[in-house]
Specification:
five-stranded mixed β-sheet, alpha/beta, four-stranded mixed β-sheet, single chain, 25% strand
Length: 304
């Protein structure tokens, strides 16, 4: 079983030839081609992408932390707890909420690597997985994302992913115009990490095309798409990669918990559900069909 938390204020759906995915959940698919990048301008520009075959791929190595985490270092929101404001801060948060669709004041108060409760089924800790798993390229699409939520996404992936499975993190900028997401972000990534790259699109492309651009830039065996306002929980990646090791053509989705958009309280999903689409392509969660429940030996078994 896997757990992650995701902010529930942005709902978008996409369908592509390769996979059907939801903007609020992770998607994993086996990478069939590999690429390397030729930057037009190292300072601040988009990238030209040139496809290469599997045998000729460029190995960008693993994620290396060059500088310890910075940002807020306090007890706000630890263990997934709610954070409440009062007075002028509360009034300001309400005003900003209309634009940001989340409480950026609270987000900015919470550490980039805050702790989250381990809400997995106790049996999950006893499960064994293959030693040899596909390497993962984590692709994070962002457009004018709040700085602290984007940093919390990046640091949670780095902190909670096994280094031997994490090939790289690719941040795809879908033509943001916020100043802090330009040179400041490039400098932050360069100062703090090896193995994290930024791909900047030269015009607004939307979530589907931005994900395709990230996929073309990836060098790992598997693609893992992550929203830019997420927090991944403990041991989230290995079960997903194990599904791909068993069946390389599969698309693996995790259990999705939630983070409240105003208090940033972490809330467990409380059970296993499956995602589906209504005819207007509205996404919704549904209980596991009874015929599938009967096929499962344990509550931790993956749902086909």
């Amino acid at each position: 079983m896997t757990n992650l938390s995701i902010y529930l204020y942005r709902r978008r759906q996409i369908i592509t030839r390769v996979f059907i995915s939801v903007a609020f959940c992770f998607s994993v698919i086996l990478l069939l081609t590999h690429v390397d990048l030729e930057p037009e301008d190292e300072q601040y520009s988009s990238y030209k992408v040139k496809l290469k075959g599997v045998d000729g791929k460029t190995n960008f190595g693993r994620i290396v932390i060059l500088k310890h985490i910075d940002g807020p270092q306090n007890s706000h929101g630890e263990n997934g707890a709610s954070v409440y404001l009062q007075g002028e801060k509360e009034k300001l948060a309400r005003r900003l909420f209309e634009k940001e669709a989340m409480n950026v004041i609270v987000s900015d108060m919470i550490a980039y690597n805050r702790s989250l409760p381990d809400v997995r089924n106790p049996r999950c800790e006893k499960l064994l997985y293959p030693k040899r798993l596909p390497s993962a390229s984590i692709i994070i699409i962002f457009y004018n994302e709040n700085w602290s939520t984007l940093m919390r996404t990046v640091w949670s992936v780095v902190s909670n992913s096994p280094s031997e499975s994490l090939r790289e993190i690719i941040l795809v900028d879908d033509f943001s115009d916020r100043a802090e997401l330009g040179t400041k972000l490039m400098k932050y990534v360069k100062d703090h990490f090896l193995g994290i790259r930024i791909v900047r699109l030269s015009s607004r492309q939307g979530i589907a095309r931005a994900r395709i651009a990230g996929a073309k830039a990836a060098t790992g065996d598997a693609l893992v798409f992550v929203e830019s306002h997420c927090e991944v929980n403990k041991h989230w990646l290995i079960p997903l990669l194990a599904r791909l090791a068993e069946k390389p053509t599969s698309v693996a989705l995790p259990v999705i918990d939630s983070v409240d958009e105003y208090t940033f309280e972490y809330t467990s999903q409380g059970g296993i559900v499956v995602g589906g689409f209504l005819w207007p392509l509205h996404f919704m969660w549904r209980p596991i069909p009874l015929e599938e429940v009967k096929k499962r030996n344990f509550s931790t078994d993956p749902v086909p």
